Structures are given as structure tokens and as C-alpha cells.
Amino acid sequence: MSAATAHVADTEPYAWPYDGRLAGGHLALVVAGWDDAWQRRSIEPAAASDAVAVLAPEVARVGGLVIAVHHGDATPLELPGARPVGAAGIDAFWGGPIDATLRSAGRTHLLVIGHGLEGPVHSTLRSANDRGYECLLVTDACAPLTDDLADAAALTVTMSGGIFGAIGRLGPVLDALASLPTAPVPIHQEP
């Protein structure tokens, strides 16, 4: 699979990313709700945390940026190798530096996951889409707030041909990342 035509398998409602440019240099993993408050409010947060622990190093391996978002005054959760970013509200783009962080790093394609599917994850994904990012909600890497709204929150992303991006699952995302080359390790020179 070449970087020019790479997609994640089995995404809905279209092959993600739409432009086929799945490459580490364009990619960021945005882990929303990565704090103690949203973790406590979520149903089965351990499953989302386990998915994050598997996905984050794979994104980093291909040169992707990993961002862990904590919201408001909540205590951030640790995520080794991630860049911690604070947000003033539920949406990671409101009252925080995430947009500037992503743009300065040249990231245009986002995998969005985390705690609080119907809250910070969904709000962050919608806001990212409004700013022109190509978004994939990895549904089984999210912890919902309620059982009865989780499926609806995911399906909302796919309305009108993918109004907020696409949805997919962890296994195919990991398979697609495994097909990408490992990013070179930057050489740091002493001053």
C-alpha cells in the first residue's frame, strides 16, 4: 500500500481518508476527554484506555502526532509520548492551542478517540471537521457516556455522506498503520 493511495478498510460512509493520503506526516491521533473527570463519567473507560495504549505508539511509529486533550480544570491522564493539550471547554478547539499545534505540525488527517464519546470526543470531531480536518472516529476506541446514545453519536458522523467525517474500527486502523513505513528517528544535536 503506497502512501499516495492508502485507506483504512471498512470505514463508513466513504473510504477514509477521502484523498487516500494516509501517511504519518499528515496524521494526528487526537485523544479527547483524556482526564480524570471524563474517564469517571464514561462507561467502560478501560476499553478505551486499552485501545489508546495500542493505537498511540503505532501512530507515533509512522511519524504521526499524538495529542492528549484534558478539559477544564480536570487532572490530565498520563499518555507516554503524547503532547498534552488543555482546552477550556468540552470541545478541544475551544480555549486551547490544539488548532495551532496541528497546523504548525502540518497535520490534516485526524483519528479521533477518547473518553466521553457523546461529549468531548464528538464535539472535538465536529469542530475539527468545521476547520477542514479529515476526521475518522474510531468507534471502538471511545468510551461512551450512556449505552443508549453511543450508536447514534457514531452514526451522526456519517449522515449526508459523512458530514463530520467517517467512522471505523480499531483493527482496520491498526492494519492500515502497519502497512506504512516507520518514520525516521530525528537526530538531536547538542547545542
Describe this structure in words.
This protein is α/β, with parallel strands linked by helices and 191 residues long. It has one domain (24-178): Isochorismatase-like (Rossmann fold, 3-Layer(aba) Sandwich), CATH 3.40.50.850. Helix content is 35%, strand content 20%. It contains six helices and six strands; from the N terminus they run βααββαβαβαβα. It has helices at residues 36-41, 45-61, 98-104, 117-130, 150-162, 170-178, and strands at 27-32, 65-71, 83-87, 109-115, 134-143, 166-168. It has a six-stranded parallel sheet with strand order 3-2-1-4-5-6. Helix 2 (45-61) runs parallel beside helix 6 (170-178) and helix 4 runs parallel beside helix 5. The longest helix has 17 residues, at 45-61.
Quick tags:
191 residues, alpha/beta, single chain
Short synopsis of the structure:
With 191 residues, this protein is an alpha/beta fold. The chain has 6 helices and 6 strands, in the order βααββαβαβαβα. The radius of gyration is 15 Å and the shape is globular.
Beta-strand percentage range: 15-25%
The residue ranges in which pLDDT falls below 50 over 5 or more consecutive positions are none
Shape assignment: globular
Provide the CATH architecture.
3-Layer(aba) Sandwich
Q: Tell me the span between the first and last alpha carbons.
A: 39 Å
Per CATH, the class reads Alpha Beta
